[in-house]
Amino acid sequence: MTTVRIPAGWPATEEQALAVQDELRSRVVLDESGPPPGTGRVTGVDVAYDDERDVVVAAAVVLDAATLDVVAETTATGQVSFPYVPGLLAFREIPTVLAALDALPCDPGLVVCDGYGLAHPRRFGLAAHLGVLTGLATIGVAKNPFTFTYDDPGTARGSASPLLAGTEEVGRALRTRDGVKPVFVSVGHRVDLDNACAHTLALTPSYRLPETTRRADSLCRRALRTTTA
DNA sequence: GCGACAG
DNA sequence: ATCTTGTCGC
């Protein structure tokens, strides 16, 4: 497992982090539809923390998009690089996630993040940020609606409703399992919202959350236990 | 001014 | 995110 230190120049205060978001958000690409679902590769990234020991472990798990079989997986460990502040989650996760992605032996294809992309107070959440830094196609699939509002989608898998910041659609509440709480999908980089939702449905044949995030979540937790123990 | 608030 | 066993149900 590779180890990373906090990058030189990494924001140390909320004001610095806000300035970075402000500078980078213009680089998000929104005029590409993205790779078609069910083709190529799809990669899940997630992190687990041990705040007591100031340790964060990231995992990247690459799946074959057609079969959802695992093609490759990596982990990376690092120091916690930022406190959790709503709206600044990316600064806590990105250095270690980048290290995990760098360690992959193959192209990750579309990257699925555990959190938001454009559904963000400044329209620059984790998935958008990671996309801009890597150039990869990214989407965000979150478990909670954050501060946004939505009308409950129909009860059937595949039903969706707009995720709203006021009247602006920043993402979609998407039902991935009949009668189960929806997930909250938003665009990251180089993928449109319809395609992001199509990918999310392709990644949820059996569970509420995408196979990518399920796999990445269990891997980084396992790796953290091993590191901590 | 006081909460709420992705992970 | 994390603290945490068993239990009800498909």
From TrEMBL:
Quote the EC number.
3.1.21.7
Main subcellular localisation: cytoplasm
List residue numbers at the site (Interaction with target DNA).
Answer: 84
Residues reported in the UniProt entry to bind Mg(2+): 46, 114
Stored InterPro entries: Endonuclease-V
Source organism per UniProt: Streptomyces gottesmaniae
Family statement drawn from the similarity comment of this UniProt entry:
Belongs to the endonuclease V family.
Q: Where is this protein found?
A: Cytoplasm
- Pfam families from the xrefs? Endonuclease_5
Which cofactors does the annotated protein need, by name? Mg(2+)
MF terms from GO for this chain are: endonuclease activity
Q: What is this protein called?
A: Endonuclease V
Q: Carries keyword Disulfide bond?
A: no
CDD domains given for it? Endonuclease_V (cd06559)
Keywords assigned:
Cytoplasm, DNA damage, DNA repair, Endonuclease, Hydrolase, Magnesium, Metal-binding, Nuclease
Highest taxon of source: Bacteria
Reactions catalysed: Endonucleolytic cleavage at apurinic or apyrimidinic sites to products with a 5'-phosphate
> What is the purpose of this protein?
DNA repair enzyme involved in the repair of deaminated bases. Selectively cleaves double-stranded DNA at the second phosphodiester bond 3' to a deoxyinosine leaving behind the intact lesion on the nicked DNA.
